[in-house]
Every structure is written in C-alpha cells, then in structure tokens.
From TrEMBL:
Pfam families: LTXXQ. Residues 82-106 have a biased composition (Basic and acidic residues). This is Periplasmic protein CpxP/Spy. Keywords: Signal. Transmembrane segments: none annotated. GO terms for cellular component: periplasmic space. The keyword Ribonucleoprotein does not apply. It comes from Methylococcus capsulatus. Residues 77-112 are annotated as: Disordered. Residues 1-21 form the signal peptide.
Length: 112
C-alpha cells in the first residue's frame, strides 16, 4: 500500500511539472513508464490517474497561459518598442531552452 501511495504521489508530481505541460497523457505515460520502469499493473494505474486529471490539467494550463499573456501585455505597455522586442526575444529563448530537453535536436529560433 505504501508503495502505491508513493507511486501515485510521484506520478502527480511528475505530471504537474512544466516539462509535461504540453504532452498528452499517453506521452507522459510512456515517459514515466520508461524512466520509472513501471510494472504493467503500475502502468495501468498511472494511465487511469493521468486520464482522470487531464481535464483539470488542461484547464489550469489555459488559465496560466491567459495570465501570462495579461502580464506580458501590461509589461509591454510600460516598455519602449525596443524593450518590448527584447522581451519577445527573451521569451523565445526561454521556450527554446524548455523544449530542448524533449526534442531530439537542439531547438531553433524561428526565422524572421
């Protein structure tokens, strides 16, 4: 029983991490299965948990994205044009660093 609780806690913690934010439950499950060496029984339990919480996770992700856009819009309202452009570039670089861990090749900045 204690092992099941530990696995559940770990699954929830991993699913909440930013690295998992853009992945669907199937991709997260496969990653966890590989990294945690889940048994078939654990895999099924984790799959059910991830699917159960997916609607809430998506809703929170959308709320976070909307909040981020509001903050960014307000920041750009007080910045000069050049500062706003630099803020955009910083955001692109942050996204590239974030995705680099999941991509098979280094992230590339979009062409102007």
């Amino acid at each position: 029983m204690k092992t099941a609780i530990k696995i559940l806690a770990l699954a929830i913690a991993l699913a909440a991490q930013p690295a998992f934010a853009g992945r669907d439950p199937g991709e997260r499950l496969e990653h966890m299965k590989k990294e945690l060496k889940l048994t078939p029984e654990q895999t099924e339990q984790v799959r059910k948990i991830l699917e159960e919480f997916e609607p809430q996770r998506k809703a929170l992700h959308e709320q976070k994205r909307a909040l981020h856009e509001q903050v960014r819009s307000r920041l750009k309202a007080v910045l000069s044009k050049e500062q706003g452009e630099k803020l955009d570039k910083m955001a692109e670089e942050r996204r590239a660093r974030h995705h680099r861990g999941w991509d098979t090749e280094p992230a590339k900045s979009p062409s102007p």
